[in-house]
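Predict structure. Chain length: 441.
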Amino acid sequence: MSTAANTLDLSNYWMPFTANRQFKSQPRILVAAEGVHYTRDDGARLLDSSAGLWCVNAGHGRAEIAEAVHRQLLTLDYSPAFQMGQPGAFDFAARVARLAPEGLDRVFFTNSGSESVDTALKIALAYHKARGEGGRFRIIGREKGYNGVGFGGISVGGLVANRRQFAGQLLPSVDHLPHTFDLAKNAFSRGQPEHGAEKADVLEGLIALHGADSIAAVIVEPVAGSAGVLPPPKGYLEKLREITAKNGILLIFDEVITGFGRLGAPFAAHRFGVTPDIITCAKGITNGALPMGAVIVDRKVHDALMAGPDNVIELFHGYTYSGHPTACAAGMATLDIYEREGLLTRVKEIEKHFEDALHSLKGKPHIIDIRNIGLMGAIELKPREDGPGKRGYDLLVDCFNSGLLIRVSGDIVAISPPLIIEPAQIDEIVEKLGAALDRLK
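Prediction complete.
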């Protein structure tokens, strides 16, 4: 048992996405972080290979962000977002809009990626209703999609474990595209796979089944993250954009993970040259320092709701902490760092090194696939006969004990270090991971 666990009362905290009884029998406690490292409660350092949870893009312990939050708390700690405004929200919305693809310049603030997704779905429905097409009520998600944990997000999402406990209570009028993962054809791909663009054509079949005039939006992650880093096949996103545009359907990119430099561009939309109608984001928007998210909306979608008497609320939706002053301050300081240090495009410089290092693990025990794009990579392990996920968990524990923090989802290891990572530190991640794989049963 760890040092802190000897003194901590672990009983009250119900931990998210955690096997609580398993964890509390063998706790892993983090007490500090700086740069690309965490510190364990016993003083040992851990190299952070997952940017916290895909979010600490500029590295840990950035004093500039902490100082901005401190100043804001002493100036205006909170102000209501309903019928009131504060300068930081307007300034930060303008900064985010300048980073977004052309035409997407209206920003609705949330507090998480999950809230961003549910907000985007509401906006899509409200948009069609405002245009006199209220019959467009259906949303199309995708298998293996992770779109947060709100009821909207798990309804359009396609991870079975996230949905199973809540079956029967999900949103109606939702359908799903097939996922694009094809191990037989695309194993050990580098960047975008060659095969799978035809999976987008299934949307034409769903349109034929339901009728285009009943479909409000299609939502996909440009790169599926929590499902295990599934880059889009070449031509896939382009096909989705063509089909949705032709049929008056909004296209939503869930960029909670891919936004803010993870793919070597401000957003995945830039990387792939495909512009959706709505982008959801969170995580890197404040470098993980404070909870915040945003929905970035095409002007035409926003303006469709700006009709009727000007004293009428156009969108009956929002959160107590929308555009929170301290979150906006953290976001402004974060964007200052990104822009000053070139972090929104830095991945272009290290992507090839990251790719080569990751694929050097091919041939290690139990590996059945390695895939990557930008500064996102995944190593998929063959599940053990005694149960899926057990091999991945054992690897997580071994790495933690040997100085490496990894993110596992079942038997998939996702690697997504802070954008400030140096090539030598990438090599250290791979070396430590390779040694742990050699020990893995």
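Summary: The CA atoms of residues 22 and 378 lie 25 Å apart.
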